[in-house]
UniProtKB/TrEMBL annotation:
It comes from Pseudidiomarina donghaiensis. This is Acyltransferase. It comes from the Bacteria. PANTHER family: 1-ACYLGLYCEROL-3-PHOSPHATE ACYLTRANSFERASE-RELATED (PTHR10983), LYSOCARDIOLIPIN ACYLTRANSFERASE 1 (PTHR10983:SF16). The chain crosses the membrane at residues 12-35.
Length: 301
């Protein structure tokens, strides 16, 4: 009874902490971005990017604190732990909840570079968010459809070359690129509608992963195949985290090499496309089996 009565108070405390820390650190990142915008000198921009990255890690620590601010949080992390902040990684993760992003932030603060996302170009115009992400050198992708390329053949490959140029900045700051391969959060309805061949997962979409590897494959030190599981196979809402109702999180990390056969032109090379889809589906099959194994040897329902 007392635990139930405390839920609203836990939510207020945690939400206020998350809101204030995000507002303050977000404002500082934007302030760092202003001189970077006004002084387009590479050395100066790298300096401000380093400062912004430090603030981003501070925000990551703040978000990590939300897991234990009003209640004890039990982390069950298995697999590879020999990771380093001064290297470059790409994460392949299943996606069950918005809480997944905070989970990956927590992992990054421990022993990985701070994560980056490939964002749609339109997001650069979103107030505060666009400038903040630009300051953090997150690449804004402008993809061209087949119809646009057919009308203007000069656009062929332009999206890749433009994004490659933007990702050159990652050479100066160790980075983790996050890719939720399923493209959306798991729900039983989506699982049934898509007729997923996997028990616990939606079928992965290979295009985004292949695109990231085509652009940055030679720079990544490894691929991190991360599996996230919640008790009772739930899809916890942020409300459950902030109100102290989420007590256990299970994570498995597997490090994979970036081999030459994983880098190619997914959209124009049919042989490579078939090979890459097969490879990613095999990873998802292993992830599905891993979830079963983790559930059977733990108290996850």
């Amino acid at each position: 009874m007392l635990t139930t009565l405390l839920i609203p108070f836990r939510f207020i405390i945690t939400f206020t902490f998350a809101l204030v820390s995000t507002g303050i650190i977000g404002a500082l990142i934007i302030l760092v971005g202003l001189p970077k915008l006004l002084l387009p000198i590479p050395a100066v921009q790298r300096m401000f990017s380093t400062w912004a990255n430090g603030l981003f890690r501070l925000w990551g620590y703040a978000m990590s604190a939300t897991f234990r601010l009003t209640q004890p949080m039990r982390w069950h992390i298995e697999g590879d732990s020999q990771l380093h902040r001064d290297r470059w990684y790409m994460i392949l993760a299943n996606h069950r909840s918005w809480v997944d992003i905070l989970v990956l932030m927590h992992l990054s603060c421990r022993n990985m570079p701070m994560p980056r996302f490939f964002l749609k170009h339109q997001l650069i115009w979103v107030p505060i968010v666009g400038l903040g992400c630009w300051t953090l050198d997150m690449p804004f992708m402008k993809r061209y459809s087949r119809e646009q390329i057919a009308k203007n053949p000069k656009l062929q490959g332009k999206d890749i070359s433009t994004t490659q140029k933007k990702c050159q900045k990652f050479r100066h700051i160790p980075t983790t690129v996050i890719n939720f391969c399923e493209g959306t959060r798991f729900t039983p309805e989506k699982h049934a509608k898509r007729q997923s061949p996997f028990k616990h997962l939606l079928a992965p979409k290979a295009g985004g992963t292949a695109f990231a590897l085509q652009i940055m494959g030679q720079q990544f030190d490894a691929i991190l195949d991360i599996t996230i599981i919640y008790p009772d196979d739930k899809r916890p809402a942020v409300w459950q985290l902030l109100s102290g109702q989420l007590r256990d999180i299970y994570v498995n990390v597997e490090t994979l090499p970036v081999t030459d056969d994983l880098i190619g032109d997914y959209f124009n090379d049919e042989a490579f496309k078939t090979h890459f889809q097969s490879w990613l589906n095999s990873r998802w099959q292993r992830k599905d089996q891993l979830i079963d194994a983790m559930k059977s040897k733990s108290d996850i329902s």
